[in-house]
């Protein structure tokens, strides 16, 4: 038997649907984006470029070679860091490792466990770079200090050096931070400091890396050449600071029609 609802019932259902729709619209999230806010700086100011901060070309497949000095235990930590950078660099650069024993073009990186040429107070070092005829990085050699033995500190030290090959340098004022792989370690704690750095690219790092690649990357300005100099990832010090006022895009949302607002995201806008 077919039941036909009465007109009053249809009207009540219609009103209920109308008010439910009004309520859902009223409390749907509203958004506001402002160019600057007084929120605490979520990212340290970082330097970019430098004599050992050339960048891999976008989409490069980098063959990773482990020197015989690298133990299986340390190699496993380095491989995890390489995986983190492959997955998170945002530029399509991937690191491949396997039974490789010799350098092969076009892109390769040699990793060894050795005291950096700059001294035993450094956790790691980009010892050498080579670039192609366009000034883009094609080979990098990284040394990690054997006295770095804590697994987390070791991962952060390797991540720091890999970051140099994406154009990252150090925090601009030489400060320490756990918001960037570019951070120097805290020399008051020592080589096995685990409070600073990161085992892969952080959101702060990606903001800088994206900006670097958007401007064409960091290249050697006098190509071609057969190599480059060394660079540090060591204790406190290094870098320079140019005073400026940082600005950030601050994204707010409201769930009560604009009565109250919640900060949900901040991104770097520039420094001037």
Topology:
Blueprint: H1 7-26, E1 30-34, E2 46-48, E3 61-66, H2 72-88, E4 94-97, E5 108-113, E6 124-131, E7 137-144, H3 151-164, E8 168-171, H4 203-214, E9 231-232, E10 246-254, E11 262-271
Helix pairs in contact: 2-3
List its traits.
3-stranded antiparallel sheet, globular, 272 residues, 4 helices, alpha/beta, 6-stranded mixed sheet, single chain, 23% helix, disordered N terminus
Can you walk me through this structure?
The chain is of the alpha/beta class. A hairpin with a 7-residue loop joins strand 10 (246-254) and strand 11 (262-271). The strands form three sheets. A six-stranded mixed β-sheet has the order 4-3-5-7-6-9, covered by helices on one side. Strands 1-10-11 form a three-stranded antiparallel β-sheet, with no helix packed on it. It has helices at 7-26, 72-88, 151-164, 203-214; strands at 30-34, 46-48, 61-66, 94-97, 108-113, 124-131, 137-144, 168-171, 231-232, 246-254, 262-271. It is built from four helices and eleven strands.
Shape: globular
What's the number of extended β-strand segments? Answer: 11
Beta-strand residue fraction: 15-25%
The run of helices and strands is: HEEEHEEEEHEHEEE
Number of helices: 4
- Describe the oligomeric state of these chains in a short phrase: single chain
**Widest β-sheet, arrangement of strands:** 4-3-5-7-6-9
Helix content: 10-25%
Report on the biggest sheet: 6 strands, mixed
What value does the average pLDDT take? Answer: 73
């Amino acid at each position: 038997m077919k039941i036909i609802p009465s007109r009053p019932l249809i009207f009540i259902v219609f009103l209920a649907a109308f008010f439910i729709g009004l309520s859902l619209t009223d409390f749907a999230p509203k958004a506001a984006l402002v160019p600057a806010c007084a929120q605490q700086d979520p990212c340290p100011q970082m330097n970019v470029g430098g004599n050992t901060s050339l960048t891999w070309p976008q989409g490069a497949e980098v063959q990773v070679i482990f020197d015989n000095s690298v133990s299986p235990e340390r190699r496993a930590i380095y491989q995890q860091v390489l995986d983190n950078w492959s997955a998170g660099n945002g530029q399509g650069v991937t690191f491949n490792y396997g039974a490789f024993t010799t350098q092969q073009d076009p892109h390769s990186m040699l990793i060894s466990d050795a005291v950096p040429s700059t001294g035993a107070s450094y956790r790691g070092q980009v010892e050498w770079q080579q670039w192609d005829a366009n000034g883009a990085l094609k080979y990098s050699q990284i040394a990690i200090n054997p006295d770095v033995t804590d697994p987390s500190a070791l991962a952060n030290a390797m991540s720091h050096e890999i970051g140099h090959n994406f154009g990252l340098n150090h925090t601009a004022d030489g400060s320490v931070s756990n918001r960037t792989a570019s951070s120097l370690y805290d020399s008051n704690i020592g080589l096995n400091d685990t409070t600073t750095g990161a085992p892969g690219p952080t959101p702060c790092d990606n903001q800088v890396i994206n900006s670097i690649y958007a401007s064409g990357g960091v290249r050697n300005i006098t190509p071609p050449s057969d190599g480059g100099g060394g660079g540090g990832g060591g204790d406190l010090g290094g870098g320079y600071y140019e005073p400026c006022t940082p600005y950030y895009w601050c994204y707010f949302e409201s769930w009560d029609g604009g009565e109250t607002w919640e900060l949900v995201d901040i991104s770097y806008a520039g420094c001037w």
